[in-house]
Amino acid sequence: MHPQESIDLPDLDETALDLFVNDICGGDEEIIADLLETYCQSSKSLISEMNQALKNGEKDELRRAAHSLKSSCRIFGAEWLAGNCEKVEQLAVEGRTESVATILEQIHVQTRHLRILLHKHFEFHDCMDNEA
Length: 132
Hints:
- The chain is mostly helical and 132 residues long.
- Helices cover 72% and strands 0% of the residues.
- It is elongated.
């Protein structure tokens, strides 16, 4: 089964977005744009780090990258994505990485979905143009 066919791709959590815009960014559009761009770039990097760590058997690095991405996703209320990051984090802690590759495929799809939703919601130019 293709990862997109078997995973949840919900809409944005408006309550979390309101918290992000007003409480975290103080409504400042420049701060919002900077944080969105930072998320876009860091999410790609963290997914790459998780894939490399899995390939190299580096469970601590896998856990760290999953934890970092999980935290970033929660800022935007993407609990559906943070949940998969948490699964990877826990599996890395337990040393049970057999199913992590499948979850990483889902995380990749979900992260791309989140970036598309954020792009549409905030109408900002992001790193989607160079997405593989």
